[in-house]
Amino acid sequence: MGKYRKVVVGGTFDRLHLGHKALLRRAFEVGRFVYIGLTSDEMVKDKPYAERILPYPHRLRDLLKFLEVNGYQNYRIIKIHNALGFTVEFRELEAIVVSEETYKGALLVNRAREEHGLKPLAIERIPIIRSGIGEKISSSLIRAGLIDPFGNPVRR
Q1: Alpha-carbon distances, residue 123 vs 77, 119, 129 (angstroms)
Q2: What pLDDT score was predicted for residue 143?
Q3: To which H or E segment does residue 34 belong?
């Protein structure tokens, strides 16, 4: 059982890759129940290669498949429309799981929670997962055709 009753993790989860999977696994390791914020299509329109981001229903399908294959059951996926998502509405949250890259977002969440009279969340941080080309594994590099979801360079 996780050390927190309820944790939150969020992202676009486009082209589910090793970094996403590590983030989700950590959330289920530390939390007994995991809230997953999945970004809306409107929220991702300014990301690199936004035109190549899979639509929300596809990203949701891939996320559900990952959760099912890994036997995760205690979760709820919620569509989010801004960086704070539902973190300032759900009083019962105890922790947030982020990568080193998204750590600053967790600090913003905690500041907003305090402004709303809520307790700040414990921050569980995972390290960046590197790709075969030395950079972090990212959906942007996958969309650009430089790496695959496992971080391997794509041969041209």
Answers
A1: 20, 12, 18
A2: 85
A3: strand 31-39
List the strands of the sheet with 122-126, edge to edge. Answer: 75-80, 31-39, 4-11, 95-99, 122-126
Q: How many alpha carbons lie under 13 Å from residue 32 in its C-beta half-sphere? A: 8
Fold of the CATH domain 4-143:
Rossmann fold (3.40.50)
**% pLDDT > 70, the chain:** 99
Place of tokens 């905690």: 110
pTM of the model: 0.92
Q: Where are the domains of the chain?
A: 4-143
Count of CB atoms situated within 10 Å of the CB of 11: 22
Quick: pLDDT tens for 41-65: 999 998 877 888 999 999 999 999 9
Q: What is the mean pLDDT of the chain?
A: 93
**Residue 60 to residue 38: CA distance in whole angstroms:** 8
CB half-sphere exposure, 94, CA atoms < 13 A:
11
